[in-house]
């Protein structure tokens, strides 16, 4: 356990889909967990867990909560493509308040980014963290902002952060795309634990993906922070079924996020550069 864990971990977005998965995992590993969300937590609280309802757009209130924590695991925000105004308040202003609170309290940030930061790359194209972002909407753009915010706060203030570009986090893959993008629940736990426990990560960027044979994403700081995925979507390859996809969704790594609001003529779709699964 790192020095930051001498104080409780603060989990934002605790009432969300992934937040609810993380609550018992973090509580059982670290013993003390403070959590928050804009809506009430729907489940019974495990021992050693406290919930405080907070809106991250309220910076001073969040700062008071963050003063009690040593590490902020930031999973709050809107997780789908929405209007810019909604994304601005929840994801951009909220992330800014998280990193500013970390600066003032000396906390580390483990930041839930997304594969939608690179969603407009074609399926089958192998990527590394050195490839420029190609967000597939305002949601992906907001997560790129969070990643750059982490770099700024390290360079200017020494705030350490670990950025997790989470793929398709599901109980099991259900479609061919997931054979490349799947993150198992077990590997999600390993990923977040590594982000919390890593010694002196500086600014680390990790693909939030399992050890998938068909993965499109390579490199990054996984080994440096101690993230070693154990699961492989290939184990489910015989059971996945291809959905009926819109041609834009079928073309790009970001799938339906790319297709939402797409207005270019379909004949402008670029050529394939690799396999689509």
Report on the architecture of this protein:
- The chain is about 35% helix and about 15% strand.
- The longest helix has 22 residues, at about 85-105.
- It is α/β, with parallel strands linked by helices and about 280 residues long.
- The radius of gyration is 18 Å and the shape is globular.
- α3 (about 85-105) packs parallel to α4.
Structural features:
277 residues, alpha/beta, Rossmann fold, seven-stranded parallel sheet, two-stranded parallel ribbon, 9 strands, globular, disordered N terminus, disordered C terminus
Q: What's the architecture, going by CATH?
A: 3-Layer(aba) Sandwich
Which spans of ≥5 residues are poorly predicted at pLDDT below 50? Answer: 1-5, 273-277
Helix content: 25-40%
Strand order of the largest sheet: 3-2-1-4-5-6-9
Count of domains: 1
Q: What does the average pLDDT come to?
A: 94
List SSEs in N-to-C order.
Answer: EHEEHEHEHEEHEHEHHH
Could you give a short description of this structure?
By secondary structure, the protein is α/β, with parallel strands linked by helices. It has helices at 17-30, 59-66, 84-105, 138-157, 178-181, 185-197, 222-225, 247-251, 256-259, and strands spanning 9-12, 33-37, 49-53, 71-74, 108-114, 161-166, 168-169, 182-183, 203-208.
What are the SSEs and their pairings?
Elements: E1 9-12, H1 17-30, E2 33-37, E3 49-53, H2 59-66, E4 71-74, H3 84-105, E5 108-114, H4 138-157, E6 161-166, E7 168-169, H5 178-181, E8 182-183, H6 185-197, E9 203-208, H7 222-225, H8 247-251, H9 256-259
Parallel strand pairs: 1-2, 1-4, 2-3, 4-5, 5-6, 6-9, 7-8
Helix pairs in contact: 1-6, 2-3, 3-4
């Amino acid at each position: 356990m790192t020095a930051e864990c001498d104080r409780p971990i603060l989990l934002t977005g605790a009432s969300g889909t992934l937040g609810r998965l993380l609550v018992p995992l973090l509580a059982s590993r670290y013993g003390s967990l403070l959590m928050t969300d804009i809506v009430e937590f729907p489940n019974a609280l495990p021992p050693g867990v406290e919930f405080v309802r907070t809106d991250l757009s309220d910076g001073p209130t969040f700062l008071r909560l963050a003063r009690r924590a040593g590490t902020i695991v930031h999973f709050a925000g809107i997780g789908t493509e929405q209007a810019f105004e909604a994304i601005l308040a929840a994801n951009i202003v909220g992330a800014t308040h998280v990193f500013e609170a970390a600066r003032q309290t000396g906390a580390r940030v483990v930041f839930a980014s997304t594969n939608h930061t690179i969603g407009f790359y074609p399926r089958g194209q192998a990527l590394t963290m050195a490839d420029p972002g190609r967000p597939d909407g305002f949601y992906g753009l907001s997560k790129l902002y969070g990643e750059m915010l982490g770099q700024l706060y390290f360079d200017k203030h020494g705030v350490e952060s670990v950025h997790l570009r989470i793929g398709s986090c599901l109980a099991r893959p259900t479609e061919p795309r997931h054979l490349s993008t799947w993150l198992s629940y077990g590997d999600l736990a390993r990923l977040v634990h590594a982000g919390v426990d890593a010694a002196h990560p500086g600014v680390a960027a990790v693909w939030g993906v399992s050890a998938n044979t068909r993965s499109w994403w390579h490199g990054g700081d996984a080994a440096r922070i101690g993230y070693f995925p154990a699961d492989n979507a290939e184990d489910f390859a015989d059971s996945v079924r291809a959905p009926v996809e819109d041609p834009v969704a079928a073309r790009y790594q970001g799938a339906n996020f790319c297709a939402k609001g797409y207005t270019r003529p379909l004949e402008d779709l670029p050529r394939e550069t690799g396999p689509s699964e």
